[in-house]
Amino acid sequence: MKKRILTTTLVCFMLILAISAFADSKDRSVTADSMDGSIISDSMDDSISAGSKKDTDSTETSETESEKTLPERDLGLEEPYAAVKTWAEGVKTRDGKLQYSIMSQNLKDEYYPIFDALGWVTGVSSPWVESYEIAETHMPGDDSYRYKVVFTYTDSTKSCFSEIKYVTVRNHNNIWLVSSIEEAGMNPSLGGISLGDSSQSVISILGSNCTKTDEPDSAGYIGEDMTVWRYESGISVTIGKTSGKVLKISSVSPDFQTELGVKAGDDLNTVYESYGPLYKEAVSRHGDEVLRGWFHTGEEAVIIFDFDKSDNTLINSSITPESEVEEIIIAYWKHFD
Questions:
Q1: Domain that holds residue 10
Q2: Last residue of a domain, one of 115, 150, 183
Q3: For residue 85, what pLDDT band results from cuts at 50, 70 and 90?
Q4: In 294-332, which positions are buried (b, 16+ CB within 10 angstroms) versus exposed (e)?
Q5: Which has the closest alpha carbon to 225: 237, 213, 215?
């Protein structure tokens, strides 16, 4: 009996020792694991906190600002042609983000609400752009180029039509970006001045150092007397004395270009390649004679390319492909008899 009790006691004692050793080992293991776990947990907490803070910051940032950042692409374009080609490809593929990525900040501000409303998918599914051609290049200044981009559209019936855009690309810190996009049929200009501009607008562009000559409206065609501002640089601006608005612009200098980049000294082909596809030539009020070199650029405006000033008339009676522009005039059609 005593032997049995002793044996039982010994077994229990050994079990207690084994359990104690296991518990001690477990405690050490748990402690080590807990330390590692604490480090991992802290790291995760920091990551989660950073992520939460980022999410919070994003939430606090306006939706417009975050969306404006989304379509940005650092294209790093160093050539002006590459910039306009990227934009044209974006139009063809209806990719608003691609178009937006190559725009200057001012143009982005203008187009963002349009693209955003369209879900960044531009144009329509039909008709679609089948092809485009970057047809002409003009260089208004040392840091900018102007391109004529012709888009050809088609549809399921295979009918085709063209649309013309005029795209100016400007250098921004050695990156060429699209700075303006204009439709064909835009307000004609010469040296940056258009009909209807104010005298203050003329001064801001050309300055005030000019010779001013008053001209009465003797024939009554204009509706008000005028003052002609003549600049030594070769451009003249006629301003209404009553309205204070530009009524006529003329230039004999190659330093002043039209909105399509044509200037004095350009040949006949340059004029007709630029204006022929866009505008109809004017027809004389006194017959069916087409006035060569005269183009209606709107309901009221006409632009005249005079190829021979020596005949003291604006009628180009004898011109050849080699003829060069000697004077450009923009005026109101109604002011011509």
A1: 2-60
A2: 183
A3: very high
A4: bbbbeeebbbbbbbbeeeeebebeebeeebebebbbbbb
A5: 215
Cβ neighbors of 244 (< 8 A, separation 6 or more) are 198, 199
Strands (DSSP E) contained in the chain are: 128-141, 144-154, 160-172, 175-183, 211-215, 226-230, 235-240, 246-251, 281-283, 290-296, 301-306, 327-332
Per-residue model confidence as pLDDT tens digits over 118-158: 999 998 888 899 999 887 666 666 688 888 888 888 888 77
Cα 69 from chain centroid (whole Å): 17
Check whether residue 205 and residue 303 sit in a common domain. Answer: yes
Token code pair at residue 157: 């019936």
Q: Are residues 279 and 308 in the same domain?
A: yes
Does residue 149 lie within any of the structural domains? yes
Burial bucket for residue 101 (CB in 10 Å: 0-12, 13-18, 19+) = buried
> Residue 153: which of 183, 125, 124, 130 has the closest Cα?
130
Q: Residue 333 in 3-state DSSP?
A: helix
Q: What is the pLDDT of residue 188?
A: 85
* 231/175 same-domain check: no
Rounded Cα distance between 291 and 303, Å, is 11
Say yes or no: 174 and 104 in one domain: yes
In a 3-state reduction of DSSP, which class is residue 113? helix
Write the Ramachandran bin of 128: left for phi over 0, alpha for psi from -120 to 50, otherwise beta.
beta
Q: What is the DSSP string of 284-331?
A: -TTSS-EEEEEEE-SSSEEEEEES-GGGSSS---S--TT-B--EEEEE
**Structure token digits, residue 262:** 């044509």
Type of residue at 59: T
Residue 69 maps to a domain? no
Report helix, strand or coil for 16. Answer: helix
Residue 190 lies inside a defined structural domain of this protein: no
**Structure token digits, residue 104:** 């200057």
Q: Are residues 132 and 42 in the same domain?
A: no
CATH number of the domain within which 302 lies: 3.40.33.10
Q: Give a yes or no: residue 68 inside a domain.
A: no
How far, in Å, CA of 61 to CA of 64, rounded? 8
Residue type at 265 in one-letter notation: G
The structural domain count of the chain equals 3
